[in-house]
User: What shape does this take?
Amino acid sequence: MESLVYKCPNCYAELKFSAKDQTFTCDYCGSHFTEQEMQAIAAQIEEHAAQRPKEEVQTDSEFNEHTNVYHCESCGASIMADDNTSATFCYYCHNPVILTGRVEGEYRPSYVLPFQLDRETAVQHFKDWCKKHWFLPKDFLSAAQQERITGLYVPFWVTDVDVAAEMDALGKKVRSWTSGDYHYTETREFAVARKAKVVLKGLPADGASHIDDDLMEAVEPFDYNAVKPFAMQYLSGFYAEKYDMNMAAMFPRIQKRAVQAADQTVRATMKNYTSVSVTRSDIKVMGTKWEYMLLPVWFMSYKYRDKIYEFALNGQTAKFVGEPPLSRGRLAGFCIGLGAAVALIATVLGVLLS
Ligand SMILES: [Zn+2]
Ligand SMILES: [Zn+2]
Assistant: This one.
């Protein structure tokens, strides 16, 4: 019997059919589907393909021919820059990087969100932030450190996700009133059932394994309205990190966010009950559409007592994130100072009281 070869609707790897439980399973991202679900997904993909205008097949050659890759042997970062921009140190761990050659393979992004903040503005944002944080180490924003502030296009996978959600719940409506000497409470119970198709647009996740995920989620949101089809000119003067996590590797993170969002969406439709307890919830990602795009982030990392502190400034919206390192020396100095002041006040009080 000739069996149909299905591609995983989430990461596009080939699915395996398991005769035992009659499901299609993806070994790469862990998704699984029934035959019925696969047929519905296949029909939907065909419909999409018919609706979409034939996109021009763009050549990757310009990107591959004019983009250099620098490698950091200490932390493994792969940094890309165009012919006119050269990298000497790793923006992340500050060690020297070596030029390894041109980009090879499918790393040309489809889209890019151009930087809105130039270097001067970015540095000013860092300075303003420093003014609000007292116990930073002395050289935190030294001239050398300012130079390390890097305009980095972070490789993001931005996904549209189709989610199928089914939820059963016990909903209660409670009302109470008093009549004469009696207090009445009426509780009505409802079997609540929801079946929904939730479509999530533009869920982002960065595809660089050593850039902190929480940091990148904190720097969101980006306004995708300003996104442009990728062209070399946007790269000029900036760096871009080469992604090292493909769609299958990204899927669990996208899935987690999509399931959470769908769960909230469905629960929001049950607000007219006094209380709701969910008895069954089946939320499943049924399909994904991925775009690989570069999003602009001003990045600074600071090495302090063997720990790397990362700071990020959204290159479009100027949203700033990062945890400041506390200089123990300066903090201790402050405490001693404070201690001295307290002692002084006590002495003054002593004098006054005597
Ligand atoms: Zn898969
Ligand atoms: Zn490095």
